[in-house]
Amino acid sequence: MELIRELAVYERAEKEVTVSLQHFEESGFGSNPVWWAFVVEIDGLVAAFALYYIRYSTWKGQRMYLEDILVTRQMRRQGLGSALFERLLEEVQEKKLNGIVWQVLDWNESAIKFYEKHNAKFDYEWVNCSLVSFTPSMYPSISTSTPSSTILTVSKLTPNTCDMI
Questions:
Q1: Quick check: 113 pLDDT over 90?
Q2: How far is CA 161 from the centre of its chain?
Q3: Which one, of 26, 15, 18, 4, lies nearest residue 133 by Cα?
Q4: How far, in Å, CA of 41 to CA of 114, rounded?
Q5: Annotated active-site positions, please?
Q6: Nearest to 40 by CA among 65, 66, 4, 75
Q7: Percent residues over pLDDT 90 in the chain
Q8: CA–CA distance from 41 to each of 17, 38, 160 (Å)?
Q9: 79: alpha, beta or left, given left = phi > 0 and alpha = psi -120 to 50?
Q10: CATH number of 2-164
Q11: Where does the chain show beta strands of DSSP type E?
């Protein structure tokens, strides 16, 4: 978690790290992992890491989402980030994914230059959105806006209904 905290400090969001080591480990190494990662080790110490997961785009299919990439401060400008990024691109090919996507902070000029060197396409149209915590009481009941004669059902998509979307 040391490198994760270093990344949070660098991104000016130190107080945003709320995940516990137990949750982190279970999420990556438990019975149903949701993330994968690569590390660069030098003399037995982790000097850089990249963490990703697979996301699904209704337009593009399965894509890698690069959640974080970090090279420790003292090891920057030595090619570790490029080595990690190239390994991620190999993983995209090995898993037959349809590309890789990520976000970069608009003030992080060194990261932006790094991605420009790798021919990244920047998309300034989209705005990030998130819900950190929520309760059902935050949303009005759907029944108040649906006519009483309408039957509305929300359920999981099944193979039987895939051709309808």
A1: yes
A2: 28
A3: 18
A4: 21
A5: 115
A6: 75
A7: 75
A8: 24, 10, 48
A9: left
A10: 3.40.630.30
A11: 36-42, 45-57, 61-71, 100-102
